[in-house]
Specification:
Length: 267
């Protein structure tokens, strides 16, 4: 009465909702063949980090990246487990790469991938048998990001500044988690919008800039948010989208049509 013979009820690559389960049961699709949730291990690095429940001492900082990454992974359907924080010591980083990937499809780290004396992770990952697929991408924020592979495990080395960490998750890690989970299409959702005010861009890299995305009279509108940089988590927390500024662009006039990466379901 409600479904024609031969009709496609559930397409491949779909995240199953309760109503999908009911429809499959009605059709006698038992069992359903599905992808399992990707397993992710998360490790933050840095001598300066203390847990969120502790009061930082001189030169210390509460860890915001670990809780954020765990929440992002779970929001995108992965099973996430946080490992103990890793100090900026060669032996500690070596132990991380030796053990952290035993039960994980993806290892995500934050910090330790730039060019400083304590940025040990890319070299130690390679020493532990990871093939480094890339290290450094022409984007802002997030230039130092690294990606490695060992067997069936991926390693994403994200920068330590919290906004850089989140931007790199949405641009790179989301695609990998979706692909592992069989989601189609994989990766973040983009939406075109008109720019509410002009923007001036520093540097010539592809840039992802904090924005508030809204729909007014059927027209999507992107309002840039002023930020002090990739450490400004307060500004970033008020954004529900990122304006993608193409490589080499220096000025975007008011009313320009821009591409926006939608953050979560906050639109």
């Amino acid at each position: 009465e409600s479904v024609e013979a031969g009709a496609l009820l559930l397409a491949r690559g779909r995240l199953l909702a309760p109503s999908d389960i009911a429809l499959a049961a009605l059709a006698g699709a038992e069992p359903l063949h599905v992808f399992r949730r990707p397993r992710v291990s998360i490790a933050v690095t840095g001598n300066e980090l203390v847990p969120a429940s502790e009061k930082p001492g001189p030169g210390q900082l509460r860890d915001s990246n670990g809780p954020m990454l765990e929440a992002l992974c779970r929001a995108h359907g992965a099973e996430a487990a946080s490992l103990p924080a890793v100090p900026d010591e060669q032996s500690a980083v070596r132990r991380l790469f030796a053990r952290a990937t035993e039960d994980a499809d993806v290892l995500i780290t934050s910090g330790g991938v730039s060019a400083g004396d304590l940025d040990l992770l890319p070299a130690e990952a390679e020493r532990a048998g990871f093939e480094i697929l890339f290290h450094g991408v022409a984007i802002r924020p997030g230039k130092p990001i690294a990606l490695g592979r060992r067997g069936g495990t991926l390693w994403f080395g994200l920068p330590g500044n919290p906004v850089s960490t989140s931007v790199c998750f949405h641009v790179f890690v989301r695609f990998a988690l979706d692909a592992l989970a069989g989601a189609e299409p994989a990766g973040p959702r983009f939406m075109s919008a008109r720019l509410a005010r002009a923007m001036t861009i520093r540097g010539r890299r592809e840039t992802y800039s904090d924005a508030r995305l809204s729909v007014v009279d059927g027209q999507a509108r992107a309002e840039p948010i002023k930020s002090r940089g990739s450490h400004d988590l307060a500004a970033y927390a008020s954004a529900n989208a990122l304006i993608r500024v193409p490589l080499g662009t220096q000025i975007l006039p008011e009313g320009a049509l821009v591409e926006c990466l939608v953050l979560g379901d906050r639109l």
